[in-house]
Design brief:
3% strand
Length: 248
């Protein structure tokens, strides 16, 4: 009778998980990791989140599930999943018989956001002053230039967007990708506070000039003066937003 078993390999059997398999894997050239593709719900959440960041969805804006499903060409279940994500990020509210709306922030939430801004922005300024990190002055300069161009056209909502980019670039001095992501979410939430201010020109106009002042001080190496200017900026910016959400 013929022996149907395969001949034994020298050194013993080595299956896919054995030494031969490991050697084969080790012999592969270096391959880049594949970035996971976002799901439809993640893409929908990204779109709504970006519309809030850009000031295109105002607080109190209703977001009808069926209309969004048709506009985005996704299922209603996908829209619901996106809504759940954004509600967890404090950007949307749900109320029975009314559905989902863009949130209004409370005074307590504004206080918390500005407390975090002071923590992250002033510590970024301290890192820059200590010489332990470098600052993307180009990113700050682009944000100021974009803000000035928008102001010249009377696009005060876009001035507000440029402001958020300016302070995000400043926090980027931490060189921490997790912090960058968190701060972007925080700035998206703060945008809801900005949008509660009734006169965006009188609110954003002075702070555009103060961003430019902070940039000039940082570029000149006047780190302590820049920190002081930033601290005053944050104190002065908090008041109008607090007043707006309280008066609502």
């Amino acid at each position: 009778m013929n022996n149907l078993n395969p001949p034994a390999r020298a050194g013993g059997a080595a299956g896919p998980g054995g030494r031969a398999g490991a050697a084969g894997r080790a012999g592969l050239p270096a391959l880049p990791p594949l970035a996971p593709l976002p799901t439809a719900a993640e893409r929908a959440a990204d779109l709504i989140r970006d519309y809030i960041f850009q000031g295109r969805f105002l607080p109190g804006t209703p977001l009808p599930e069926s209309a969004l499903s048709q506009a985005l060409q996704v299922s209603r279940n996908t829209v619901r999943e996106a809504f759940r994500t954004l509600m967890n990020e404090h950007l949307l509210d749900y109320e029975a018989h009314k559905g989902v709306t863009v949130r209004w922030l409370s005074a307590a939430e504004i206080r918390e956001i500005f407390a975090l801004r002071r923590l992250f922005e002033l510590s970024a300024s301290d890192l820059i002053a200590s010489g332990t990190t470098t600052l993307d002055l180009g990113g700050l300069d682009r944000a100021v230039a974009d803000g000035r161009a928008a102001a010249a056209d009377g696009r005060w909502g876009d001035v507000g967007t440029a402001n958020l980019y300016f302070h995000s670039a400043l926090v980027g001095a931490h060189r921490n990708s997790r912090l960058d992501e968190f701060f972007r979410h925080l700035m998206t939430e703060l945008r809801l506070g900005f949008l509660a201010v009734p006169d965006p020109e009188s609110f954003h106009g002075p702070f555009l000039h103060r961003n430019a002042e902070i940039l000039d001080l940082l570029a000149a190496g006047e780190h302590q003066l820049a920190r002081s200017a930033l601290a005053r900026y944050l104190d002065d910016a908090e008041g109008p937003v607090m007043e707006a959400v309280t008066r609502r």
